[in-house]
Amino acid sequence: MTQRKRRADWFHRYLANPITVRLPTQVVLETTGRRTGLPRRTPVGGRIISRQFWMVAGDGEAADYVRNIKVHNAVRLRIKGRWRRGTAVLLPDDYAALRLTQLPRFNSAMVRALGTKPLTVRVDLE
To answer: What CATH number does residue 28 fall under?
Structure first.
């Protein structure tokens, strides 16, 4: 693991995520822990397009929430303060760099700056 990746992981785990997950305007992804079976909440950025929520995981398959989705693809998203259920689908063949141009600018800039292996994730909302 590179020094840059360790710093970014530390920043997200101990500073950014604990604060942003509490903000009512922040989109939050809730997955089921692959080992514990407990709910895990992660702030994410993305956009709803045609009853689907699209996002890009900056660290791709190394991201804990992506690894959780690989085991349990039933997820929940808190969007505008309301929880919605959905099924997450990993899309390794989607061109993540192009997808980022369709998503919110600030989050896309963060993914470009800190991400190592971007992976598109689609959540089909119920």
So the answer is: 2.30.110.10
d(C-alpha 24, C-alpha 49), whole Å: 21
Instruction: Indicate the number of domains in the chain.
Output: 1
β-strands 119-125, 52-57 pairing: antiparallel
> Global pTM?
0.88
* Cβ count near 59 (within 10 Å): 20
Q: Measure the CA–CA gap between 5 and 20, rounded to whole angstroms.
A: 20
What is the DSSP secondary structure assignment for residue 110, as one 8-state letter?
H
Q: What gap in Å lies between CA 18 and CA 43, rounded to an integer?
A: 9
CA distances from 62 to 12, 15, 31, 69, 70 (A): 14, 20, 15, 12, 11
Q: Which domain holds residue 57?
A: 3-125
Task: Kindly report, residue by residue over 53-70, the tens digit of the pLDDT.
Answer: 999 999 899 999 999 999
